[in-house]
């Protein structure tokens, strides 16, 4: 039953912002984009959708900071960096205001280190984001964290260009 | 009808790819300091079996780096009475292996083999070895072990098995194979990662990490019945299973109480208790052969290094220092040293540290070399490497002199671990 309601809400939202790009595209944006994504643009930007923006779930608004779903790290570091803190805090606020939404925090690492060490590091990354979300008002019951270590790399290759993509915690909302 | 044809075709293609996977190529780099010159004469009897056995025995001895194979050059004695010792002295052989092989009425293969001392003109050993139908490689490994043991005084390990993970795109397979990489058997295949296989000391079970439940969880699987049991599935990550040498305990790493910490349990998952208490990542536990100590990786000092602590609790001691970070420690079978992965200047290499002197030496020159484990005789170390853009299996002799690369036919081989002597 709950699922059906969510689906209906989602359908409405999709209809409301049909001109917007699907959220997957936004979520897959580069690390820099996540850090510099403009905070909710307000009504001034696009005439056609501006009238519906007030009812749009900010989660589905590609211009919202919430469109960023990944937190990136330097090598062998698990603390959320200053550049990504606004993103995590925005998700915390959203979760605190939308108690029915749940997220899975998925920690990942680059391939340097042993895969067992990286499994631990990825868990520490995911747990760090979870803690920050809880501090920001999300409830523990809305959150689960998991580590994939270096086992599910997004980018292949033994170079920093790939590694920087793989040192990451994804904030993955349940559909 | 067409559909039936298609499925037959599909089946044929499947068979073909399975056969292709069975293919393997091996490269040997370097040579031991003192190589024993030995002639392996193809056996009499069944010519096809003799040829197959000869290839296995020759390959095993050659890869050990301790032998130089002398070409029989047309001399093919099968009985001691047919051996003319001067012929072999001229060729420089110190020992010569001869024998016969036959298939018995019940399908079993029997080889009668003798090892002769060319210098002293005496028989060093004579033995009959028999195996079931189709296990011709097993006979070869057994004979290679006997020759190795007689001529070097060390245990042979050619009849042992290895386990590793093969990754092909998103498909992960847990594989068990002969020590030379042949005779692959798939233990588990799935589209979720598999990590850290580890042998029970009796060789009957593998403990490993699988992500099939959505996160890292520890399974124990019988290699005889294929029955598997989920033994650690707490919230967070469950990983790095390691058996004690008596087989009664399993060390695992759990994040259920915060960061990655080491716990002990029985191999069925019962009697769980935490034994490491740090704010860091403590992982990759490995029991000492006497069961008293654990080696493990920890970043408690700020970077990943190898530590040792008593199993029953107590202070941990840091063992690796200097530049870079260190991972994946494993005791030598005699407990006097350990191998580990060292990362420095962007390169992974395999290093060995002697407990008494505390001295570390690099066994490989560095590249993408990870996850070392000793052969049961301590003379060879198996590890994961990379060549031609693929993950491969590799070995290095414990003195660092002889290396070999084993290329499986497809995919990336990773996480290898040498099984026990049965």
What does this structure look like?
Chain A is built from 7 helices and 4 strands; from the N terminus they run H-H-H-H-E-H-E-H-E-H-E. Chain A is globular. Chain A has 175 residues and is an alpha+beta fold. In chain A, strands 1-4-2-3 form a 4-stranded mixed β-sheet. In chain B, a hairpin with a 5-residue loop joins strand 29 and strand 30 (403-408). Chain B starts with a helix and ends with a strand. In chain B, helix 2 packs across helix 4 (136-152). Chain B contains 4 helices and 31 strands. Helices cover 15% and strands 44% of the residues of chain B. The relative contact order of chain B is 0.11. By secondary structure, chain B is mainly beta. In chain B, the strands form 7 sheets. In chain B, strands 2, 3, 4, 5, 6 and 7 form a 6-stranded mixed β-sheet that branches. Chain B has a 5-stranded antiparallel β-sheet with strand order 1-30-29-28-27, covered by helices on one side. Classes of the chains: A alpha+beta (175), B mainly beta (422). The A-B interface holds A 76, 112-117, 119-124, 127, 144-149, 151-152, 158 and B 193, 195-196, 209, 211, 214-216, 235-237, 239-240, 253, 255, 258-260, 281, 283-284, 297, 299, 303-304, 325, 327-328, 341, 343, 368, 370-371, 415.
Largest sheet of chain B: 6 strands, mixed
Number of E strands of chain A: 4
Estimate what percentage of residues of chain B fall within beta strands: 35-45%
Dominant shape of chain A: globular
Radius of gyration of chain A: 17 Å
Distance between the termini of chain A: 14 Å
Report the largest inter-chain contact. Answer: A-B, 23 and 34 residues
Q: Give me the side-by-side strand order of the main sheet of chain A.
A: 1-4-2-3
- Low-pLDDT runs of 5+ residues of chain B are 1-22
**Into which percent range does the helicity of residues of chain B fall?**
10-25%
């Amino acid at each position: 039953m709950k699922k059906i309601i969510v689906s209906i809400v989602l359908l409405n939202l999709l209809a409301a912002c049909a001109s917007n790009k699907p959220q997957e595209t936004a979520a897959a944006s580069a690390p820099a984009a996540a850090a510099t994504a403009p905070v909710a643009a307000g009504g001034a930007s696009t005439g056609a959708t501006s009238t519906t923006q007030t009812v749009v779930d900010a989660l589905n608004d590609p211009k919202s900071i919430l469109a960023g779903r990944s937190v990136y790290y330097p090598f062998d570091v698990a603390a959320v960096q200053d550049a990504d803190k606004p993103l995590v805090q925005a998700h915390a606020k959203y979760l605190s205001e939308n108690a029915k939404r749940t997220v899975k925090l998925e920690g990942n690492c680059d391939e340097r280190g042993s895969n067992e060490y990286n499994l631990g590091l990825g868990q520490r990354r995911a747990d760090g984001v979870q803690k920050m979300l809880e501090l920001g008002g999300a409830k523990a019951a809305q959150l689960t964290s998991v580590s994939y270590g270096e086992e599910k790399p997004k980018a292949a290759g033994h170079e920093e260009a790939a590694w920087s993509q793989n040192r990451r915690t994804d904030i993955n909302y349940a559909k | 009808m067409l559909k039936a044809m298609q499925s037959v075709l599909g089946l044929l293609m499947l068979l073909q790819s399975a056969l292709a996977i069975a293919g393997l190529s091996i490269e040997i780099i370097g040579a031991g300091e003192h190589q024993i010159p030995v002639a392996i004469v193809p056996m009499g009897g069944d010519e096809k079996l003799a040829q197959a056995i000869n290839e296995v025995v020759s390959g095993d001895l050659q890869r050990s780096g301790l032998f130089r194979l002398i070409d029989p050059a047309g001399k093919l004695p099968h009985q001691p009475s047919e051996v003319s010792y001067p012929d072999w002295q001229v060729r420089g052989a110190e020992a010569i292996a001869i024998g016969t092989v036959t298939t018995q009425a019940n399908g079993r293969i029997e080889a009668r083999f003798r090892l002769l001392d060319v210098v002293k003109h005496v028989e060093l050993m004579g033995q009959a070895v028999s195996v079931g139908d189709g296990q011709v490689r097993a006979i070869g490994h057994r004979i290679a072990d006997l020759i190795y043991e007689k001529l070097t005084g060390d245990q042979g390990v050619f009849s042992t098995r290895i386990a590793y993970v093969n990754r092909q795109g998103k498909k992960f397979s847990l594989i068990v194979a002969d020590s030379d990489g042949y005779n692959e058997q798939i233990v588990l295949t799935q589209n979720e990662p598999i990590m850290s296989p580890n042998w029970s000391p009796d060789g009957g079970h593998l403990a490993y990490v699988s992500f099939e439940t959505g996160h890292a969880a520890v399974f124990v699987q019988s290699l005889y019945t294929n029955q598997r049991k989920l033994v650690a599935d707490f919230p967070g990550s469950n990983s790095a299973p390691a058996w004690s040498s008596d087989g009664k305990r399993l060390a695992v790493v759990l994040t259920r109480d915060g960061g990655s910490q080491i716990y002990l349990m029985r191999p069925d998952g019962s009697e769980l208790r935490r034994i490491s208490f740090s704010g860091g990542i403590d992982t990759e536990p490995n029991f000492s052969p006497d069961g008293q100590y654990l080696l493990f990786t920890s970043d408690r000092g700020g970077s990943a290094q190898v530590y040792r602590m008593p199993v029953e609790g107590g202070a941990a001691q840091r063992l690796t220092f200097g530049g870079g970070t260190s991972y994946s420690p494993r005791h030598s079978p005699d407990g006097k040293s350990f191998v580990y992965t060292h990362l420095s200047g962007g390169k992974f290499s395999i290093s060995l540290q002697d407990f008494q002197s505390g001295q570390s030496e690099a066994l490989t020159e560095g590249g993408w070399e990870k996850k070392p484990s000793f052969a049961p005789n301590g003379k060879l170390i198996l590890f994961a490497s990379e060549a031609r853009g693929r993950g491969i299996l590799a070995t290095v002799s414990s003195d660092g002199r002889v290396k070999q690369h084993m290329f499986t036919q497809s995919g990336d081989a990773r996480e290898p671990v040498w099984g026990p002597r049965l």
